[in-house]
Amino acid sequence: MTEIAPYTLLADGYDSVMEHVDYDAWVDYIRVVFERIRTEPESILELGCGTGSFAVRYVARRPIRYLATDRSEDMLRMARNKSAGIESGLEFARADFTNFSLDERFDAVLLLYDGLNYVLDLSAIGAVVRSVAGVLKAGGLFVFDQSTPVNSLSNEGDFEDEGCCDAFSFTRRSDYHAGRRIHSNKFFLHTGRGVFVEKHVQRVYEYAEIRFLLEDSPFDVIEAYDGFSLQPATDDSERIHWVVRKPQETSP
Ligand SMILES: C[S@@+](CC[C@H](N)C(=O)[O-])C[C@H]1O[C@@H](n2cnc3c(N)ncnc32)[C@H](O)[C@@H]1O
After folding, report:
1. Is 56 in the pocket of ligand 1 (CB under 6 A)?
2. Are residues 85 and 167 in the same domain?
């Protein structure tokens, strides 16, 4: 068995493994969130875009300037294949969201589907937030989600499942360490070339931890939504969608 980096071989079958995720509904939801705060971004930067499932659906609805980034070249390769032939301002680029800068400025930044949970401590989340502030226009929005300890305890905790796709068959072992709030998923990927293992380590954060961090950040907190609803998040939320705004520049 050979250990390989997260999102290398898994990238080839990621869309099959995530077949249950309704990206169309996720795009609908984010569009409703924008509508609710009377914003229609003309440019979006997506962080941790994976295989681009959200991005291609978003630009299909609204063909704006859309830069989708991820740390994994293999996920980006799948994303570029998926978007081949789409006429829009969609572009993919490699970026590590814990430390990045760009010359371009965006109306909105998105980080969806547990990307933030790959950041293993709060000070590193602070660095993500500062990098995002640097690439947003004044008044721009940062919309991101987080998975909470409630989700790990109720749904995602300890389980094993298996499946197969064209690229591999897999067994996934999920373990949650409640004390450290560390959630690890081990993917055993069986291929004609042998068995490869990818270890994905995530940390789950309490609602209050992220709120305190944001209140001490360059952003104004606009909303924290419970799951995919427009109801306020609480300590019992399993997933939270945060909407925060970079303040308008004030004249001296
Ligand atoms: C659970 S996947 C979600 C992908 C995509 N957002 C989706 O909805 O399908 C998490 C993604 O975050 C990316 N990622 C994790 N840590 C990252 C980092 N520090 N910088 C950039 N991307 C990162 C991974 O490569 C992976 O593509």
Report:
1. no
2. no
Tell me the pLDDT band of 250, cut-offs 50, 70 and 90: low
Measured by CA distance, the residue closest to atom 10 of ligand 1 is 115
Ligand 1 mutation target, pool 12, 22, 49, most atoms within 8 A of CB: 49
* Ligand 1 center–CA 112 separation, angstroms: 8
pLDDT tens for each residue of 144-156: 999 999 999 987 6
CATH code for the domain in which residue 176 is found: 2.20.25
Question: Does 7 fall in a domain?
Answer: no
Instruction: Report the atom number in ligand 1 closest to the C-alpha of 14.
Output: 9
Instruction: Give the predicted TM-score (pTM) of the model.
Output: 0.97
Tell me whether strands 182-191 and 194-203 are parallel, antiparallel or unpaired: antiparallel
